[in-house]
Design goal:
The chain has 732 residues and is of the alpha+beta class. It is built from 16 helices and 30 strands. The strands form seven sheets. A seven-stranded antiparallel beta sheet has the order 2-12-4-3-7-6-5, covered by helices on one side. Helix 3 runs antiparallel to helix 6, helix 6 packs parallel to helix 11 and helix 14 packs parallel to helix 15. The radius of gyration is 42 Å and the shape is rod-shaped. The protein starts with a strand and ends with a strand.
Length: 732
């Protein structure tokens, strides 16, 4: 089977021209005639046209007198004409006036003729500035169709806009009662395939006067293939001819709408009967289309400028907000609503290492984690954009209608820092001009049967429901993401400079703290010794019947001893903090028991049930270990103390080379959205503000665990919280 895809059809070399035109081809090097259209004999009187081959136009001064005398032919002979530029003139041939066009392309020079037609219906003045006073997109195109109707006056005239995927849509229309309206209808990409769009960029006006007339064959001595890209009378593809017939038209005329050197759309005109438009009228229609295109481009530029100014103002505010915080993550989290809204997204996820912060309508945390993994594995660029993410990944990533569209921006791949914007599913209903599904037909071209995608036989509205996609991310949405990226890059550099300065200041403060630690340890030694001596004297003065009082005084003496030991440890820690910490095998049971009893008294919660299940030794620093358990157990007792039956469970277990302690409570729990802030200093949850505290404890635990080579994590829900402390297992 000889099958040809639409986009493979060689429509620029049909081997024929339309019957309204006449064509002579000249070899560019020798200026001798190398091909001509078969109908040349209708206007030039020569019995044997075979005599033309290999001869120059000037070899037939009487036959081609009007051509030789034309200014554009003289310029051609002088080699002053430019490549792919068409030059126009009018000449008389046998007392009939013809438009005479000349252009150079490839190895050939083309001489093209068509009869001059008078247009009795033409009602147009030369006022070209009307388009520039219009400040509305729809009105610009409506005005263009109104203007063109006074020049070409086809039954149906449309503005056809190309979409991003190559399909098109009729966005403006002017009709009479001869043909049905196509306003608002969509057309598939295959209706104007890639090579046709490329030709529309090169040859910007295209007329098919009569789709039912027979084309005229080109004759050449060597049966050469002639590229007719720039020929006005180039014959149409048989597929396109059938397409026009199926639409109920007999004639068509198109003008390219070029915006910023891209084929933005077409003016497409169709007539129920055969109709030819004079060349001058076609040129004038092209001029008005170019004016409307420029007016639209100016309108879009003005609109884009206004958007850019508004975006710049919002970005400037965002930049100021970013610089209020010490880290990029904090800057992003505290401005998450603005970051979500700038690209007009429904939801946002901020991912930094293991933390995920969400805003708006987003997938679940587990789905976001899957998307993050997918993005690392399947994207190479810093930005990925899709409006069909749901359609593509509904099953493998388990995304739902919340994630139909997505933009992923990697801030730093190595650190797993990225932003994700989400758009929910948009139920799109597209009205096609006929069913867009392709069918295969058989067509004859140059005597050869070919199987090719057949044009539709019906253009009645066909509605298609599109699922799995979001609204399109437009250029302004992408510009907003780029602006956010620039804010991140700029403020990150400034934050680096600030952090560097803070580190220098911190170094000085640490030196002062070292001095302060030594002073405190030294100066408090004497008062503690005095307190201990007085307590011992008080103990010795008691009578034998005061056992309760003796117990309390002994407790005071024990705490004084503990304080003295702790002060000594703090001094040693201060001296050793710039070197490696010496980790020892530390028993935990006695430390935990003391902290538990003190916590019940401190938070006035004697009814708290505290269960201790196993206390294996750990590898740690004694003072630091006390701080760890003190903060975690105190929090467990404190935040469960308002329950009717407060309960805390402390359990240690050995798992391989690790010792893991879990401290769980049935307290107030930790909201999921607070997770990323849990170990930040001075952070307090909203639901914890009725309890006393300063938001420092968990930050201390987090830093100490990192320092001794361990880890702290937690799980939480409405029923309570469980912290996990992971230590190195002692080797004995």
């Amino acid at each position: 089977m000889n099958f040809v895809e639409c986009h493979d059809e060689p429509i620029h070399i049909p081997g024929y021209i339309q019957s309204f035109g006449y064509l002579i081809g000249i070899d560019k090097a020798s200026h001798s005639i190398s091909f001509f259209s078969e109908n040349i004999k209708d206007i030039f009187k020569l019995e044997n046209f075979e005599l033309l081959f290999g001869k120059k136009i000037t070899d037939f001064p009487q036959l081609f007198k009007s051509i030789i005398e034309s200014d554009i032919f003289i310029a051609l002979e002088d080699n002053t004409s430019r490549e792919n530029i068409t030059y126009f003139d009018k000449v008389f041939i046998d007392q009939e006036q013809y438009h005479f066009s000349v252009f150079r392309t490839g190895e050939n020079i083309f001489l093209e003729f068509e009869k001059v037609l008078e247009n009795p219906y033409k009602r147009i003045n030369n006022k070209y500035d009307n388009f520039y006073i219009i400040d509305n997109e729809q009105e610009i195109w409506d005005q263009l169709l109104s203007t063109l109707s006074k020049i070409v006056n086809y039954d149906r005239m449309m503005i056809y806009k190309f979409m991003m995927d190559g399909s098109g849509k009729v966005i403006a229309e002017r009709t009479n009662n001869e043909l049905e309206s196509y306003m608002g209808l969509h057309y598939p990409e295959s209706d104007i395939p890639r090579q046709a769009r490329e030709l529309y960029l090169k040859k910007r006006k295209r007329i098919f006067s009569d789709v039912y007339s027979d084309p005229v064959r080109l004759i050449s001595r060597k049966n050469q293939t002639v590229d007719l890209t720039f020929s006005t009378s180039r014959a149409m593809s048989p597929i396109h001819g059938q397409y026009i017939k199926n639409s109920g038209a007999s004639s068509s005329f198109s003008i390219s709408i070029i915006i910023e050197d891209h084929l933005w759309g077409l003016v497409t005109c169709q007539n129920s009967e055969a109709k030819h438009i004079d060349l001058e009228d076609r040129v004038q229609a092209g001029i008005f289309t170019a004016l409307a295109s420029n007016a639209y481009s100016s309108f879009k530029s003005k609109k884009e400028l206004n958007y850019r100014l508004a975006l710049t103002e919002k970005v400037s505010e965002l930049k100021s907000e970013f610089l209020k915080y010490n880290t990029l993550f904090e800057s992003l989290v505290e401005n998450k609503s603005k970051i979500k809204d700038l690209p007009e997204a429904d939801g946002l996820a901020i991912i930094s290492n293991q933390y995920i912060v969400k805003e708006g309508i987003t997938p679940t945390t587990s789905v976001i984690e899957k998307i993050v993994h997918w993005a690392h594995e399947n994207t190479m660029e810093s930005m990925y954009v899709s409006r069909n993410f749901l359609k593509k990944h509904r099953h493998d990533l388990e995304v739902t209608e919340d994630t139909a569209g997505i933009i992923i921006y990697f801030i730093d791949r190595d650190k797993n820092e990225l932003l994700m914007w989400f758009r929910k599913e948009f139920d799109e209903h597209i009205k096609w001009a006929g069913n867009p599904e392709k069918t295969i037909g058989v067509f004859s071209q140059n005597g050869e049967e070919k199987h090719i995608v057949s044009p539709r036989t019906s253009f009645h509205a066909f509605t298609e429901n599109i699922k799995g996609s979001s609204r399109r991310w437009n250029s302004q949405n992408i510009s907003a993401v780029h602006a956010i990226r620039d804010v991140i890059l700029e403020t990150s550099h400034k934050q680096y400079t600030v952090i560097k300065q803070l580190n220098e200041e911190l170094k000085e403060v640490n030196e002062e703290l070292d001095s302060f630690s030594y002073t405190i340890s030294h100066d408090l030694g004497t008062p503690l010794t005095v307190m201990k001596l007085n307590a011992q004297m008080l103990l010795n003065s008691l009578t034998d019947g005061s056992e309760k009082s003796r117990g309390k005084i002994n407790s005071i003496i024990e705490e004084i001893d503990n304080m003295a030991v702790m002060m000594q440890d703090v001094l040693q820690l201060s001296r050793a903090k710039h070197s490696e910490i010496q980790l020892d095998v530390i028993p935990t049971e006695s430390t935990i028991l003391k902290i538990v009893e003190n916590a019940k008294m401190t938070f006035a919660s004697p009814k708290t049930e505290i269960m201790i299940k196993g206390c294996p030794d750990v590898l740690a620093d004694k003072t630091m270990l006390h701080q760890i358990f003190l903060n975690i157990i105190n929090n467990a007792v404190k935040y469960s103390s308002h329950k009717e039956e407060p309960k805390v469970i402390i359990e240690g277990s050995i798992e391989g080379d690790l010792v893991i302690y879990s401290i769980s409570d049935n307290g107030i729990g930790i909201p999921e959205e607070e997770k990323h802030k849990m170990f930040k200093i001075f952070n307090r949850m909203d639901n914890a503000k009725k309890f006393k505290g300063n938001g420092v404890g968990l930050s201390i635990v987090h830093r100490i665990m990192k320092r001794i080579g361990g880890n702290v994590d937690y799980e939480s829900n409405k029923e309570g919280t469980c912290f996990f402390l992971t230590f190195k297992k002692p080797y004995i």
